[in-house]
Amino acid sequence: MAIDHIARVKELMPEILASDPSSTHAGTTPGSFASAPEIAAGRAGAKTYSSQDSPGIPKPSNKTAWDFMPTDWTLIEGFEDDYEKAEAWQRPQNYEPSTQLDSARCGIVTVEMQRVADREGHLTATQVRDEVAAGRMVIPANRNHLQHNLDPMAIGRASKTKVNANMGASPVSSGTDEEVEKLKWAERWGADTVMDLSTGGDLDACREAIIQNSTVPIGTVPIYSMIIGRRIEDLDEETILNTLRHQADQGVDYFTIHAGVLHEHLEYVKNRLIGIVSRGGSLLAKWMIHHSLQNPMYTLWEDICDVMRQHDVTFSIGDGLRPGGLADATDIAQLAELSTLGELTERAWRKGIQVMVEGPGHVPLDQIEFNMKVQRTLCHGAPFYVLGPLVTDVFPGYDHITSCIGATNAAWHGASMLCYVTPKEHLGLPKKDDVKQGCVAYKIAAHAADVALGIPGTRDWDDDLTRARAALNWQKHFDLSFDPDTARAYHDEDLDVDTDFCAMCGHDWCSVRISKEIQEFASGKSDDYQWQKAKVSAALSEEQQEILEKRGVLSPEELHRLASKTKKTMGAEEGKASCHSEVSDADKAQMLQIVELGSAD
Amino acid sequence: MAIDHIARVKELMPEILASDPSSTHAGTTPGSFASAPEIAAGRAGAKTYSSQDSPGIPKPSNKTAWDFMPTDWTLIEGFEDDYEKAEAWQRPQNYEPSTQLDSARCGIVTVEMQRVADREGHLTATQVRDEVAAGRMVIPANRNHLQHNLDPMAIGRASKTKVNANMGASPVSSGTDEEVEKLKWAERWGADTVMDLSTGGDLDACREAIIQNSTVPIGTVPIYSMIIGRRIEDLDEETILNTLRHQADQGVDYFTIHAGVLHEHLEYVKNRLIGIVSRGGSLLAKWMIHHSLQNPMYTLWEDICDVMRQHDVTFSIGDGLRPGGLADATDIAQLAELSTLGELTERAWRKGIQVMVEGPGHVPLDQIEFNMKVQRTLCHGAPFYVLGPLVTDVFPGYDHITSCIGATNAAWHGASMLCYVTPKEHLGLPKKDDVKQGCVAYKIAAHAADVALGIPGTRDWDDDLTRARAALNWQKHFDLSFDPDTARAYHDEDLDVDTDFCAMCGHDWCSVRISKEIQEFASGKSDDYQWQKAKVSAALSEEQQEILEKRGVLSPEELHRLASKTKKTMGAEEGKASCHSEVSDADKAQMLQIVELGSAD
């Protein structure tokens, strides 16, 4: 007796068709099982995207930046229950907004907020303003960098997931020109911000060059320059504030400052397998142990805020105690620092400074949701900017992969920006191609998370490419790809004809061709993706040649042929185009011959 | 007034220290928030590993293979409530076990089960037997392949996550020798099984060569050879059964058969963006539409079982209707097929055949848990063997990455084996290096999932490498890496001295060095990982040279130097070793000079 599997599926999962009984799509909706934290939904008018909370996960804070106003602002009587808006507050006499947060609190939509809304697509300028006012979004835009080529962007969970690329010379490797080249390369490969983490060469000149050449926000870790020509033990208040003023003047858009590593946390680091892996964190730990004093960045926080305020530099409060191995993940040291970052966030908001908070390094996959969501508990929704995390320690050389797995999950569970990791992590300094590999892996993570979260419009790209793929329109397939040169080069390596199969399966077994030929199926029949006849692909561009040279699969002769092919050369290579089986249509065989001998579009 | 962040953390998360109040480790335990499905826990005596169920996720089936016994076995009176064991059953007269499942049902621990237990480490042979008897584990071991070099292994959620590598020639590319080379290469890079998916060349000779050379189980998709010299429309019962007999005789360990694509499912494929992307699925769909008959694989299932039984070939029931784009994921067609695979699983178990079930291709990250867990509802715990899934469609050239993100999640949520995807997916046929890249990405996914699930012993490897890294013992760090040559080559590209920093940060900023030097920290002080002095690394091996050549970062001269270096050559390169800042110890500077001029171990 036949089982009705269709009926069983519909019965087993009734919610599936609740919205559209005639739909053939059973699927859970994007971001399904999602419950946006109540704090965000509805309040600022913008939907914050989130994965559903697993049982046992800590709940979000019920506070926002509106709960940490500057002490000289007054809540107007009557607004006690409705204070998360500009109209509820009395500002001090002669108040001048300086930062994006200031403006948002005044109800002002700045030029930068408008630009952000244009770029995000699914957010209005007012929603952007309200997200900034709530502290859930930052627009890192130093006024001095705005004088150059900075194109304003935002980081925050209501917006698309962002990616940061790190670069910078070390004393052992690289220099200013190479770093500017990496900057442009990172911009090309989709980095949304770039950090100059130089510890060697001419730090000042490199930083200036990067800021002046960059359309994306630039971040730095100022403590690195504080120890040039100086031992860490000799770091003092004057050096700290002067360095910050200098870099702020230069136009740095955000500073990573490790103010959350407190003296009292250090005993919880003692038994870790790999101690402190943050450069800034380890330097400040060393300072504190030497002086038996509290972290100067923590004690000077309000003075540092005053420096930040001048040009609107954003905080990226550093995770000096992030875990550097799975064994050290989610320990008291890490979480106590995160709690401190929450305190520092509150203090920064009281000074009107924009804040994002940094997060961990190496975390087993099953602990990522907890790691992300405990941050919204402790830091009141401030954007979370996470490095990876790596989900295993044992694959150096491939840490762009081990970490982008964690990063995709981290963004889905709440992180707003992902700091990339390259294949050189743990081994040496990233080169230009490592920058690209890191960017690609992280654009994958960011985009996949946006789709999972259901951010409007993000899956349109995937669907368009799927239509092109279904139609076997190779050119359109590659044009829509994130890296068209690589896709085209890999295809042409085996088969330099665009036709209704490829080298993976050959003609007879190509499921995409078969699906397209089945009249009843819509597959491959989208109007905008049709093509007329098979054609020889164009000669390889230089970039595509280089890609294939590095793969080392083709001989120099084969590479040369692809690079310089003409009809005549194609016709001579009988073996290459003999891709039809003995049961291929006479029509098909004829078509291939036409391709070989006839017109090449 | 200072906030006690340590106290706040302990209070906020009380369960953290429940097990050990003196622990500095807050962390959630591996596989935390995990609730192994009740069906598995306790019953067979082995713990099945699982992520915690999100709210709304379908519950597991409460049946196992013990509920689908051959109809000529009788349940002994009195065992109605305790029938999941050999003693509960009366076998037919003169019964001879043929498959691993048969033996397990008879209470027999076979040689292969013992070998599996040795390889798994955390499972006893009895537990292996019981997992096989319950249908939750398969040991794909064709008796004919056992005559050659097959080393028995198991696939099932109680065991470590496994990885399959696909290879095979197409009509357009490759041949037997190249495919055997890929096989050995895949074995080297950790593939646990290999599938020969050839559609071109001499299919028979290739398959024979692969089986005879392979220490891992070999899978095939027999329908491919069924259409050599034949149109799909002409496929008949005789061809199907003869082909299966022939391949079973050759020693194939598991068959992918797309018996779950039913005629009545096809209308649910109509509106998909990319129809049917499975070769076998599309061929059978074409057959059914042409003949207006039910899928012959489905109708002939019991006859096929009889063929499988002879040499103990395992089923891998194909996912012919898997989604080929995010837009098609989790639709009725896919789920109805999965329901059918459940029915086919039951029918195969009744014939004593081992079964695993195949799963989807392209699934948004947020739908993966649902996709994995609905399978345990429908297929009673049979091992789930999934391809990817890809979490975005728009990165062809990088689909080993887009899919290993999904695969890590899939394994954590229940999949037992992951079918790899290479950088050539959607574009052409994988080459040798693509096989390696696919294997590495999937070994990452499998290992990261094992750690997340808390499979005993799996994180020891990560912890050992972290200790070596913390001690700055580079040689041990690389020896413990999954790919030591790549790790060593990337390190030496910038700095060919093993010392207490690397080229990423240089001496003064190396956090790992600083952590190790802080007396109070245990970091880097593990006895087994200490080293005496910095040393020049050995000359590059040929493989390491090739890795750096392909990167294209170093000039031929620099490569030559690394490949052939001697003390004299090192001493001459003053610029290369000037990695100490102006504040480096005189001791350090001297040490480097000793390295340059002195002994090279």
TrEMBL record, chains A, B:
Pathway(s) of this molecule: Cofactor biosynthesis; thiamine diphosphate biosynthesis
Cofactor(s) listed in the protein's UniProt record: [4Fe-4S] cluster
GO molecular function, one term: zinc ion binding
EC number(s) recorded for this UniProt protein: 4.1.99.17
Family recorded in the similarity comment: Belongs to the ThiC family.
Function comment: Catalyzes the synthesis of the hydroxymethylpyrimidine phosphate (HMP-P) moiety of thiamine from aminoimidazole ribotide (AIR) in a radical S-adenosyl-L-methionine (SAM)-dependent reaction.
Protein name per UniProt: Phosphomethylpyrimidine synthase
Organism name: Fuerstiella marisgermanici
Lineage: Bacteria, Pseudomonadati, Planctomycetota, Planctomycetia, Planctomycetales
